[in-house]
Protein 1
Amino acid sequence: MSFERFNLDPKIMSGVRALGYTSPTPIQLDSIPPIMKGNDVMGLAQTGTGKTAAFVLPILQRLLPGARGRVRALVIAPTRELTEQTNKAIGQLGRKTGLACVSVYGGVSMQTQVNALRRGADIVCACPGRLLDHVRRGTINLSKVEVLVLDEADHMFDMGFLPDIRAILKHLPAGRQTLLFSATMPAEINTLARDILHAPVRVQIGHTAPAATVSHTFYPVAMTSKNALLQNILDTTETGLVLVFTRTKQRSKRVAQHLEASGYNAAALHGNLSQSNRQKAIQGFRDGRFKILVATDIAARGIDVCGVSHVINYDIPATADAYTHRIGRTGRACATGDAITFVSGEDRGLVSQIARILGSKLKYGAAKGFGSAPDGPGRPASSGRLASPHTGIPSDPTPKPRSRPASRYRPVGVSQQRSFRRSSKTV
Ligand code: AMP
């Protein structure tokens, strides 16, 4: 199945080819035709499925022939990082179209954005708060918007943005096309969807299952031994880029400092950092200067970095959906990846929730010297060998050390070689 079937303009196809996309992902196959027909779409898809191109390609196609220099498409997203990423995808896919995209978010100069908007934008990617500022100051005109995208709507709700979004909606033409993407459907997003979508085509990919081709391994460990276990894993595992998740900003900072002090190239990414430091951390991670990024959920949401081989949940995520989002950072459209989760005694309930979305019985290995396996649904009958074909963590009880003594743990994991649910073909 190729992109030719969508009859996209050759200028847009040149962007598709430049990014090396050969066949559409399932969300693209299902969403692009109805979006191109002008339907409203409700897309239930997590990040990592290719959903950005699913809405960007039809938007470029629609905007290509019309008048230039006024905002005809608006993409609203919860975080600056996601906004920048979408802006970048539009720039890459639309490189030959001459369409101008401007991003709008807080924490950076208002005037720079005002100047960019004055120069003329065909597409705006925005975070809700700063966009509303522009609307109220009259520095953006949304009266010509033909397509509105609400990306990661559930996350915007989590972050308290729904009132801002409803206020922005009042400034948009009623006859526009609206596309809403969300990884989950809490009641509030269902209500919003009912209010703003007209006869939407519903597209659902993968539901809440984690991204394809990720192996999942759980390590019981006492809270006080997490740093030692993390270091042990990093020392004995072949990794590409590693994304470590912590529950709090403070812990993200402390773990990154600890890793740096132990000689790793690590950086922290959390909401207390200034915008420029956040960008430095992400850019440094992207270009490999930092091999390890220690992040909180909100700061890392939507980060699209190729080459993340391991996601390590230093702290277990607060919900099963958050697990899906974190794991979405590895095993992205092109690759396989490993998810490693540290589990302490009090995490039992969450482990059962995660087991449900993984759809497999979890097994634990004995993490010798690092704590004991929790009781409960996933408790193993025995501590068998690691079942993952592509984890870099050695399944041999005496793994090869690089710079430190042999590993003291023996993990047992669950391997998932899943396809996107709709199709047996993955990219
Ligand atoms: P997204 O879910 O939009 O964040 O996309 C996840 C990753 O998949 C990004 O790195 C995209 O560049 C990549 N991607 C999107 N569509 C395709 C495709 N059809 N073929 C290969 N990679 C893709």
Protein 2
Amino acid sequence: MSDCLFCKIVAGDIPSTKVYEDETVLAFRDIAPQAPTHILVIPKAHIASVACIAPENSAVVAHIFEVIAKIAAQEGLDGGYRVVSNCGADAGQTVHHLHFHILGGRQLNLEMA
Ligand code: 5GP
Ligand code: ZN
């Protein structure tokens, strides 16, 4: 998707601070961190949101969660961390390329919203 910000990051057209990369997944630091550790994990192939996960593309989502566990260990998030994916307007999704936030490094508040 040529007008998608995260596709441009995957293509290298927009720089990012990468923390993990393989054939199908990229992880990079959020530009506006909400916690001491704030990393975004995305599929390289464009999927618009959680709502678009389907049998044809769900394998990468399982892989993303394996990558999340690896990154959390690398980042030393031994006290725990939160994984968030905003889906759609009511959740405040601003970038319409599936991404999972890893948030950690401080005590996170307990509200879900
Ligand atoms: P959303 O609000 O869609 O769940 O999350 C989008 C996230 O992308 C936000 O946390 C925002 O700070 C981050 N973001 C937006 N533009 C950029 C960018 O150009 N580079 C990086 N690294 N993060 C970005
Ligand atoms: Zn995209």
